[in-house]
């Protein structure tokens, strides 16, 4: 009887040992499973983060569905500084009569309390408002512009008419006419809705903006850029290495914002050479015509370098396509761009 009892005791011990071993093995397996799952989850989370980063990495310029607003801005020395250039995504500068230039600021999805001084329309600026699918804002108009606004069905808002009956366009006291007419984006959009114009747009941007930095490795140095429009009207840009932008000057005056006095900093400069001629209409005003269709020579300038390009515009309503000399559309750095449409014989210089 005593031996039988000892045998049973030994069996119980073996059973207990086996149970302990099974439990230990189970715990180890569970820990391994948890570790594997944790690693998979971490990889999955990392992939989701990377995916989110990729989705967020899109150009900011001309993002969204707000319809752009293209505003004619005075660029006479007595009109500086202007309001609206600081917020503009894209600005066109083209010669007008008397060797002067005017600016057309294209603004998208921003609320601005003061834009101006606003000046009258010129017919060739309409081509660039149309290619941006923009509401066109001006204060008066030339006869050719008036005719083309009607013929091309341009959604235009003429402040010289609106100022007669409201304060939506007004003249400020610290400037003298005609360099003192201003408005804001709220008023522009209110007029657009009143006139039945669209205030949204699904049109893609004229420029092929990219987020990866474009460096023109084979370009020529362009730390300083000079673009003469006439004997007394030269635009200059000076490159700032710290911000990787250009500071803009007109007639040797640094261009700053009207209210904040912040510098107008430009990421990209595009130059297009186009022939301008005087319109012989008997008025004696010397208004200009612009031969801007077809393939025109130009430059793309960014990050301190300049490269030759071709600027192709097939019709007044078609978008301009900016190509390298091999015929490929160029990538443009995300940021503020000035398009300088200058006289065909302008002696542009780079340093």
How would you sum up this structure, described in words?
This protein has 2 domains: 69-194, YerB-like fold, CATH 3.50.90.10; 209-350, 3-Layer(bba) Sandwich (YerB-like fold). Helix content is 24%, strand content 30%. It has helices at residues 2-56, 125-131, 143-151, 159-162, 185-194; strands at 69-74, 90-95, 101-107, 135-138, 156-158, 170-171, 181-182, 209-210, 220-221, 224-230, 233-240, 245-250, 253-254, 265-266, 268-278, 288-291, 294-302, 305-313, 321-323, 332-333, 337-343, 349-350. β18 and β19 (321-323) form a beta hairpin. Mean pLDDT is 89; it is low at 1-8 and 38-51.
Keywords:
alpha+beta, YerB-like fold, 2 domains, 6-stranded antiparallel β-sheet, 22 strands, 24% helix, globular
Low-pLDDT segments, ≥5 res:
1-8, 38-51
The CATH class assignment of the largest domain is Alpha Beta
Q: Provide a count of the helices.
A: 5
Profile the largest sheet.
Answer: 12 strands, mixed
CATH topology of the largest domain: YerB-like fold
Order of helices and strands: HEEEHEHEHEEHEEEEEEEEEEEEEEE
From the N-terminal CA to the C-terminal CA, the straight-line distance is: 112 Å
Number of domains: 2
Which structural class matches the secondary elements? alpha+beta
- Average pLDDT figure: 89
Envelope shape: globular
CATH architecture of the largest domain: 3-Layer(bba) Sandwich
Radius of gyration: 32 Å
Helical amount: 10-25%
Q: Give the full name of the CATH homologous superfamily of the largest domain.
A: YerB-like
Strand content: 25-35%
What is the number of E strands? 22
């Amino acid at each position: 009887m005593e031996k039988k009892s000892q045998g049973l005791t030994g069996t119980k011990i073996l059973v207990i040992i086996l149970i302990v071993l099974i439990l230990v093995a189970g715990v180890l397996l569970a820990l391994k499973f948890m570790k594997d799952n944790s690693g998979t989850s971490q990889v999955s989370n990392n992939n989701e983060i990377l995916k989110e980063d990729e989705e967020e990495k899109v150009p900011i310029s001309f993002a969204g569905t707000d319809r752009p607003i293209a505003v004619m801005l005075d660029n006479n020395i007595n009109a500086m500084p202007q309001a609206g250039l600081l917020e503009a995504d894209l600005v066109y500068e083209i010669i007008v009569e008397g060797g002067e230039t005017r600016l057309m600021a294209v603004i998208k999805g921003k609320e601005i309390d003061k834009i101006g001084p606003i000046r009258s329309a010129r017919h060739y600026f309409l081509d660039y408002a149309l290619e941006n699918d923009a509401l066109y804002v001006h204060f008066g108009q030339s006869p050719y512009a008036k005719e083309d606004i009607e013929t091309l069905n341009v959604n235009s808002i003429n402040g010289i008419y609106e100022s007669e009956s409201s304060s939506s366009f007004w003249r400020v006291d610290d400037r003298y006419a005609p360099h003192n007419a201003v408005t804001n984006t709220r008023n522009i959009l209110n007029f657009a809705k009143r006139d039945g114009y669209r205030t949204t747009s699904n049109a893609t941007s004229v420029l092929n903006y990219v987020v990866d930095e474009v460096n023109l490795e084979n370009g020529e140095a362009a730390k300083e850029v000079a673009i003469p429009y006439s004997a007394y009207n030269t635009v200059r840009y000076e490159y700032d290495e710290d911000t990787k932008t250009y500071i803009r000057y007109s007639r040797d005056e640094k261009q700053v914002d009207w209210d904040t006095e912040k510098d107008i900093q430009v990421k990209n400069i595009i130059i297009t050479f186009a022939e301008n001629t005087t319109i012989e209409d008997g008025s004696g005003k010397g208004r200009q015509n612009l031969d801007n269709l077809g393939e025109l020579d130009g430059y793309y300038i960014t990050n301190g370098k300049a490269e030759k390009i071709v600027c192709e515009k097939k019709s007044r309503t078609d978008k301009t396509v900016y190509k390298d000399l091999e015929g490929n559309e160029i990538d443009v750095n995300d940021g503020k761009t000035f398009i300088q449409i200058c006289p065909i014989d302008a002696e542009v210089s780079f340093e």
